Amino acid sequence: MLGPVLLAAARSDSIRRVVAAAPVTRPVVERFVAGERLDEAMAAVRNLAARGLEVTLDHLGEDITDPAEALRNRDAYLRLAEALKEHGLGVKAEMSVKLSAFGQALPGGHELALQNVTPVVEAAAEAGTTVTLDMEDHTTVDSTLAILAELRARFPQTGAVLQSYLFRTEDDCRALAGEGSRVRLVKGAYKEPATVAFQDKREVDRAYVRCLKILMAGRGYPMIGSHDPRMVAIAQELAHRNGRKPADYEFQMLYGIREAEQRRLVAEGNRMRVYIPYGTDWYGYFMRRLAERPANLAFFLRSLATRG
User: Fold this and answer.
1) Active-site residue 184, yes or no?
2) From which residue to which does the signal peptide run (predicted)?
3) Do the bridges between strand 182-186 and strand 54-59 make them parallel or antiparallel, or are there none, so unpaired?
């Protein structure tokens, strides 16, 4: 079971240094990360938009230890919002933020994260787009949802992510299935204890379907964050059953994963949004992508073998 090992490695500074220093790592990372600079991310946006895909952009920078880092992350998102506005891409691209990047885990972190993320949400609105709050480990859920409620009072289009492997998520789906609410449903990519989360993949899948039924039957806007063909098919059936048109929900997949499926869904008339991460702090994101699917790990190992 390499998944838990890789998730633990995602938080290891010593392993981070080894992986980052390996000369073969960077070309492999480029499959999952659009680049380290804003201009590289914007080039990826334009490329995908030209093919009928929409995007959500994540400036990587979680697990910070200093309030100054939170300000730097805030400023990076402000520059991103300005770039989207300048190039008229707000209609095609939104932004995803991890509140840990805005100081959520620091002393006084709830207030600090709200203070730092608010101008980003304001700037997104000015650029004609919006922000979705990524969900992190279970200890952050209450704070993240409370910040969501604060932001939605002024910016009701602000979205949230819910993770089906947490026991609480069905209740959270019910709470967020109302008019105007935007929810990205994912299975979950953090190592969680058995006291709060399903550990068996089949249980996680069943929970995902239960949550999807709640969201599809609600009055909000479901965003299906999954690469699982079964979940895609189930989502389409549930959308049909609930009388939803293609504009009433969307699929979301990660940059560099199942690209042919992304194109297929667009060709069939579905809304398809690609999650594009960029920035220098790519290590934690990269390790979670390896942990999620054996195929990702196999791809990395094959690259190590062929480039070594």
Assistant:
1) yes
2) none
3) unpaired
How do residues 226-277 score in pLDDT, each as one tens digit? 999 999 999 999 999 999 999 999 999 999 889 999 999 999 999 999 999 9
Of 243, 278, 288, 229, the residue nearest 56 (C-alpha): 278
Which residues, in sequence order, are CB contacts of 97 under 8 Å at separation 6+? Answer: 58, 59, 77, 117, 120, 131, 132, 133, 134
Strand partners, 56: 94, 275
- Burial label for 229, CB within 10 Å (0-12, 13-18, 19+), is exposed
Catalytic residue among 134, 172, 205, 281: 134
CA distance 22 to 14: 13
Candidate list 74, 152, 182, 184, residue with the active-site label:
184
List, for residues 106-157, the tens digit of each pLDDT value: 999 999 999 999 999 999 999 999 999 999 999 999 999 999 999 999 999 9
